[in-house]
């Protein structure tokens, strides 16, 4: 296994919708192993393949008391209820904001051997499923924020020392305090934030 470099905001791979996995061979197994190790190294709650520069439909997660991976995920909301919680992203270090997501989702997909899997999840894991599936569609969490919070997030990104406009950046995230860009104070402890 190996820790792979995290792609950061500005890298085109993060804005590119990914094709479905069709080859369940050793490369996919290695990718999933490496994604787990990379997520753990950076203490993430989830990680999607484009974040390590691989444009394919896979994510891993470790939050809400569960750990696993989903290949070719498709989620649907269980009902109309929503939840709002602090959200960040390993590809956008230093930015956190309150993001509204579906409260409960059912996710279908397959595992790395191609065996079908499905689960119904809520709380932070439901947020992770939506956040990571967004990555596979080339969508980053600031696009899910209010226009005001999104502008604030982009301001923090532009002023970050890791951000180089228009260039591919393959540095790894740094530690330090995240900047809260939402309206008002975080509703819950940001240490519990999805990232
Ligand atoms: Zn992310």
User: Strand sequence of the main sheet, in spatial order?
Assistant: 1-2-3-6-7
Q: Stretches where pLDDT falls below 50 for ≥5 residues?
A: 187-191
3D shape? globular
- Tell me about the biggest sheet? 5 strands, antiparallel
Backbone CA Rg: 16 Å
The overall pLDDT, averaged over residues, is 90
Q: State the domain count.
A: 1
Number of helices: 3
CATH architecture type: Alpha-Beta Complex
What is the strand tally? Answer: 8
Assign the CATH class. Alpha Beta
Task: Work out the strand percent.
Answer: 25-35%
Account of the 3D structure:
The protein is α+β, with helices and mostly antiparallel strands and 195 residues long. The protein has one domain: Alpha-Beta Complex (Peptide Deformylase), CATH 3.90.45.10. Helix content is 22%, strand content 26%. The strands form two sheets. A five-stranded antiparallel sheet has the order 1-2-3-6-7, with helices on both faces. Strands 4-5-8 form a three-stranded mixed sheet. β6 (104-110) and β7 form a beta hairpin. The longest helix has 16 residues, at 26-41. Zinc ion is lined by residues 89-91, 131, 135.
A few lines on this structure:
With 195 residues, the chain is an alpha+beta fold. Helix content is 22%, strand content 26%.
Give structural attributes.
alpha+beta, Peptide Deformylase, 5-stranded antiparallel beta sheet, 3 helices, 22% helix, globular, binds zinc ion
Write the layout of secondary structure elements.
Layout: H1 26-41, E1 46-48, E2 58-63, E3 66-77, E4 82-87, E5 95-102, E6 104-110, E7 116-122, H2 123-136, H3 147-158, E8 179-180
Parallel strand pairs: 5-8
Antiparallel strand pairs: 1-2, 2-3, 3-6, 4-5, 6-7
The protein binds zinc ion.
The site of zinc ion has 5 residues, from helix 2.
């Amino acid at each position: 296994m190996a820790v792979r470099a995290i792609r950061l905001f500005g890298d085109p791979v993060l804005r590119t919708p990914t094709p479905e996995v069709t080859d369940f061979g050793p490369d996919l197994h290695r990718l999933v192993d490496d994604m787990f190790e990379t997520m753990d190294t950076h203490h993430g709650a989830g990680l999607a393949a484009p974040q390590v520069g691989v444009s394919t439909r896979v994510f891993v997660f470790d939050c809400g008391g569960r750990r696993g991976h989903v290949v070719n995920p498709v989620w649907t909301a269980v009902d109309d209820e929503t939840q709002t919680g602090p959200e960040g992203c390993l590809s956008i270090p230093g930015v956190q904001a309150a993001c509204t997501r579906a409260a409960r989702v059912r996710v279908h997909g397959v595992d790395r051997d191609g065996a079908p899997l499905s689960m119904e999840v809520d709380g932070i894991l439901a947020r992770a499923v939506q956040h990571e599936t967004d990555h596979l569609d080339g969508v980053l969490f600031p696009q899910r924020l209010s226009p005001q919070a999104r502008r604030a997030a982009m301001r923090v990104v532009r002023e970050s020392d890791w951000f180089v406009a228009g260039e591919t950046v393959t540095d790894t995230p740094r530690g330090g305090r995240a900047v809260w860009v939402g309206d008002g104070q975080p509703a819950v402890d940001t240490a519990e934030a999805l990232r």
